[in-house]
Amino acid sequence: MTMDMLAAKRRIKLSNPWHLLATGFGSGMFPWMPGTIGSLAAIPLWCLLVQLPWQLYSLAVMFSLCMGVYFCHQTAPDMGVHDHGCIVWDEFVGMWITLMALPVNDWRWVLAGFLLFRLLDI
After folding, report:
1. Is 93 helix (H, G, I), strand (E, B) or coil?
2. How far apart are the C-alpha atoms of 98 and 92, rounded to whole Å?
3. Furthest C-alpha separation in the chain
4. pLDDT tens digits, 88-119
5. Exposed, middle or buried by CB within 10 Å (0-12, 13-18, 19+), for 86?
6. Are 82 and 76 spatial neighbours (Cβ–Cβ below 8 Å)?
7. Dihedral, CA atoms, 97, 80, 75, 99, nearest 10 degrees?
8. Nearest residue to 28 via CA among 53, 2, 8, 58
9. CA distance 3 to 69
10. Mean pLDDT of the chain, nearest integer
11. Which helix (H) or strand (E) covers residue 26, if one does?
12. pTM
């Protein structure tokens, strides 16, 4: 990681709600593979979302997508970098969309969805 990228990461303040959300509740601050860690961190929240009726789940994902555009757009200028690796909200929403397609809520399907999402996201 270059010095500019490290300096940008130091500008993140997890006390700022936009930064906290953009970094996936801090999961994107992990020093190695922040996108993968962000994708993993999305799974416990998915466990809550999947309890909702399908229509509410879809609305929650759409709302998260729209709000994510806003707070990631707010965080990037604060960091001084357009698409820093620690901004992982897109991994959260992408995982929720991927897991929406599971035929059965079984850990093997979740693992398959996670692996497929990471393969295509990388």
Report:
1. helix
2. 10
3. 46
4. 999 999 999 999 989 888 999 999 999 999 99
5. buried
6. yes
7. 10
8. 8
9. 26
10. 92
11. none
12. 0.90
Q: Which residue has the tokens 């992990």?
A: 30
Give yes or no for a contact between 36 and 118, defined as CB atoms under 8 angstroms apart.
Answer: yes
Burial class of residue 108 in the structure, from the number of CB atoms within 10 Å of its CB (0-12 exposed, 13-18 middle, 19+ buried)? exposed
Structure tokens at 79: 């960091």
Determine the 3-state secondary structure of 35 from DSSP. Answer: helix
Whether the CA torsion 63, 92, 24, 53 is positive or negative: it is positive
pLDDT at 46: 97
Tokens 């929403």 sit at which residue? 93
Alpha-carbon distance 81 to 54, whole Å?
Answer: 36
d(C-alpha 118, C-alpha 115), whole Å: 5
Domain definitions of the chain by residue range: 3-121
Q: In a 3-state reduction of DSSP, which class is residue 102?
A: coil
pLDDT digits over 3-54, tens only? 677 887 888 999 999 999 999 999 999 989 999 999 999 999 999 999 999 9
